[in-house]
Amino acid sequence: MGVKSGWQGRFFEDFEVGDVYRHPLGRTITETDNTWFTLLTMNTNEAHFNAEVGRQSEFGKPLVVSTLTIAIAIGQSVTDTTQNAFANLGLDQLKLTHPVFAGDTLWSESMVTATRASGSRPHAGIVTVKTRSLNQHGDEVLSFLRTFYVHRRDSPLAKPTFPEAKTPFTAEETP
The pTM is what? Predict the structure, then answer.
Protein backbone atom coordinates (compact mmCIF):
# COMPACT_ATOMS: atom_id res chain seq x y z
CA MET A 1 0.00 0.00 0.00
CA GLY A 2 1.27 3.45 -0.81
CA VAL A 3 0.59 6.68 -2.60
CA LYS A 4 0.54 6.25 -6.37
CA SER A 5 1.28 9.32 -8.42
CA GLY A 6 -1.19 10.21 -11.12
CA TRP A 7 -0.21 11.35 -14.61
CA GLN A 8 2.26 14.21 -14.18
CA GLY A 9 2.41 15.34 -17.80
CA ARG A 10 5.35 15.46 -20.18
CA PHE A 11 8.56 17.36 -19.59
CA PHE A 12 10.82 18.77 -22.30
CA GLU A 13 12.87 15.54 -22.47
CA ASP A 14 9.73 13.51 -23.24
CA PHE A 15 8.89 15.23 -26.52
CA GLU A 16 10.19 13.68 -29.76
CA VAL A 17 9.53 15.11 -33.20
CA GLY A 18 6.97 12.95 -34.98
CA ASP A 19 5.24 11.67 -31.82
CA VAL A 20 1.44 11.90 -31.98
CA TYR A 21 -0.70 12.21 -28.86
CA ARG A 22 -4.37 11.34 -29.15
CA HIS A 23 -5.89 13.33 -26.34
CA PRO A 24 -8.17 11.07 -24.28
CA LEU A 25 -11.26 13.19 -23.68
CA GLY A 26 -13.89 13.90 -26.32
CA ARG A 27 -16.21 16.85 -25.72
CA THR A 28 -19.78 17.29 -26.94
CA ILE A 29 -20.65 20.95 -27.39
CA THR A 30 -24.11 22.03 -26.22
CA GLU A 31 -26.22 25.05 -27.10
CA THR A 32 -25.63 26.29 -23.56
CA ASP A 33 -21.83 26.08 -24.01
CA ASN A 34 -22.10 28.07 -27.21
CA THR A 35 -24.42 30.72 -25.74
CA TRP A 36 -22.39 31.16 -22.56
CA PHE A 37 -19.07 31.40 -24.41
CA THR A 38 -20.55 33.86 -26.90
CA LEU A 39 -21.86 36.04 -24.07
CA LEU A 40 -18.66 35.70 -22.01
CA THR A 41 -16.52 36.88 -24.92
CA MET A 42 -18.97 39.61 -25.97
CA ASN A 43 -19.31 38.22 -29.49
CA THR A 44 -22.33 40.00 -30.97
CA ASN A 45 -22.57 38.05 -34.24
CA GLU A 46 -26.07 36.59 -34.10
CA ALA A 47 -25.05 33.62 -36.26
CA HIS A 48 -23.95 32.04 -32.96
CA PHE A 49 -26.96 32.65 -30.70
CA ASN A 50 -30.03 33.55 -32.79
CA ALA A 51 -31.91 30.53 -34.17
CA GLU A 52 -33.68 32.64 -36.82
CA VAL A 53 -30.42 34.06 -38.14
CA GLY A 54 -28.95 30.55 -38.11
CA ARG A 55 -31.95 29.12 -39.99
CA GLN A 56 -31.54 31.77 -42.70
CA SER A 57 -27.82 31.05 -43.12
CA GLU A 58 -26.31 28.60 -45.58
CA PHE A 59 -25.92 26.16 -42.65
CA GLY A 60 -29.58 26.25 -41.60
CA LYS A 61 -28.74 26.54 -37.89
CA PRO A 62 -26.47 28.53 -35.56
CA LEU A 63 -22.73 27.91 -35.74
CA VAL A 64 -20.63 27.27 -32.66
CA VAL A 65 -18.43 30.32 -32.15
CA SER A 66 -14.99 29.44 -33.53
CA THR A 67 -13.09 30.70 -30.50
CA LEU A 68 -14.93 28.12 -28.36
CA THR A 69 -13.81 25.38 -30.75
CA ILE A 70 -10.23 26.65 -30.48
CA ALA A 71 -10.43 26.82 -26.67
CA ILE A 72 -11.71 23.24 -26.46
CA ALA A 73 -8.94 21.96 -28.74
CA ILE A 74 -6.27 23.66 -26.65
CA GLY A 75 -7.88 22.43 -23.43
CA GLN A 76 -8.06 18.85 -24.71
CA SER A 77 -4.33 18.94 -25.49
CA VAL A 78 -3.12 20.20 -22.09
CA THR A 79 -2.88 16.82 -20.38
CA ASP A 80 -0.50 15.51 -23.07
CA THR A 81 1.40 18.63 -24.12
CA THR A 82 1.39 21.56 -21.73
CA GLN A 83 0.71 20.11 -18.28
CA ASN A 84 4.28 21.20 -17.37
CA ALA A 85 4.45 24.27 -19.59
CA PHE A 86 4.67 27.76 -18.18
CA ALA A 87 4.08 29.96 -21.21
CA ASN A 88 2.53 29.79 -24.65
CA LEU A 89 4.75 31.52 -27.21
CA GLY A 90 2.66 31.38 -30.34
CA LEU A 91 -0.41 30.12 -32.10
CA ASP A 92 0.19 29.98 -35.84
CA GLN A 93 -1.35 28.67 -39.05
CA LEU A 94 -4.82 28.46 -37.50
CA LYS A 95 -7.31 26.99 -39.96
CA LEU A 96 -11.02 26.49 -39.36
CA THR A 97 -11.83 23.86 -41.96
CA HIS A 98 -15.33 22.59 -41.14
CA PRO A 99 -18.35 24.14 -39.38
CA VAL A 100 -19.13 23.06 -35.81
CA PHE A 101 -22.67 22.92 -34.42
CA ALA A 102 -24.25 22.29 -31.03
CA GLY A 103 -24.40 18.52 -30.61
CA ASP A 104 -21.04 17.89 -32.31
CA THR A 105 -18.45 15.93 -30.34
CA LEU A 106 -14.82 16.94 -30.78
CA TRP A 107 -11.61 14.99 -30.22
CA SER A 108 -8.14 16.43 -30.66
CA GLU A 109 -4.69 15.07 -31.36
CA SER A 110 -1.28 16.71 -31.50
CA MET A 111 1.93 15.89 -33.34
CA VAL A 112 5.31 17.18 -32.14
CA THR A 113 6.87 19.16 -34.99
CA ALA A 114 9.90 20.77 -33.32
CA THR A 115 11.87 20.85 -30.06
CA ARG A 116 14.84 22.89 -28.92
CA ALA A 117 16.56 23.78 -25.71
CA SER A 118 15.92 27.28 -24.45
CA GLY A 119 18.91 29.59 -24.74
CA SER A 120 17.70 31.88 -21.95
CA ARG A 121 16.10 29.40 -19.54
CA PRO A 122 18.31 26.37 -18.79
CA HIS A 123 15.45 24.73 -16.86
CA ALA A 124 13.20 24.65 -19.96
CA GLY A 125 12.82 23.85 -23.62
CA ILE A 126 10.63 25.06 -26.45
CA VAL A 127 8.23 22.66 -28.17
CA THR A 128 5.98 23.14 -31.19
CA VAL A 129 3.02 20.87 -31.85
CA LYS A 130 0.46 20.73 -34.62
CA THR A 131 -2.98 20.14 -33.14
CA ARG A 132 -6.11 19.20 -35.01
CA SER A 133 -9.66 18.50 -33.91
CA LEU A 134 -12.03 15.99 -35.47
CA ASN A 135 -15.80 15.81 -35.14
CA GLN A 136 -17.76 12.60 -34.57
CA HIS A 137 -17.70 11.90 -38.32
CA GLY A 138 -13.92 12.21 -38.59
CA ASP A 139 -14.05 15.61 -40.31
CA GLU A 140 -11.13 17.86 -39.37
CA VAL A 141 -12.73 21.02 -37.99
CA LEU A 142 -9.56 22.97 -37.20
CA SER A 143 -5.78 22.81 -37.02
CA PHE A 144 -3.02 25.05 -35.70
CA LEU A 145 0.60 25.13 -34.61
CA ARG A 146 1.25 25.98 -30.96
CA THR A 147 4.67 26.76 -29.49
CA PHE A 148 5.30 26.75 -25.75
CA TYR A 149 7.93 26.76 -23.05
CA VAL A 150 7.96 23.53 -21.02
CA HIS A 151 9.95 22.63 -17.92
CA ARG A 152 12.75 20.09 -17.96
CA ARG A 153 12.23 17.16 -15.59
CA ASP A 154 14.87 18.48 -13.14
CA SER A 155 13.57 22.06 -13.13
CA PRO A 156 13.24 23.44 -9.60
CA LEU A 157 10.10 25.24 -10.85
CA ALA A 158 8.33 22.00 -11.81
CA LYS A 159 7.86 20.51 -8.36
CA PRO A 160 4.48 18.95 -7.46
CA THR A 161 2.05 21.27 -5.65
CA PHE A 162 -0.24 18.66 -4.06
CA PRO A 163 -0.34 19.45 -0.32
CA GLU A 164 0.63 16.91 2.34
CA ALA A 165 -2.37 15.90 4.42
CA LYS A 166 -2.10 16.72 8.11
CA THR A 167 -3.61 13.31 8.78
CA PRO A 168 -2.56 10.53 6.37
CA PHE A 169 -4.88 7.80 5.13
CA THR A 170 -4.77 4.60 7.15
CA ALA A 171 -5.71 1.04 6.25
CA GLU A 172 -8.46 1.12 8.90
CA GLU A 173 -10.40 3.64 6.80
CA THR A 174 -11.11 1.13 4.02
CA PRO A 175 -14.30 -0.98 4.20
Answer: 0.89
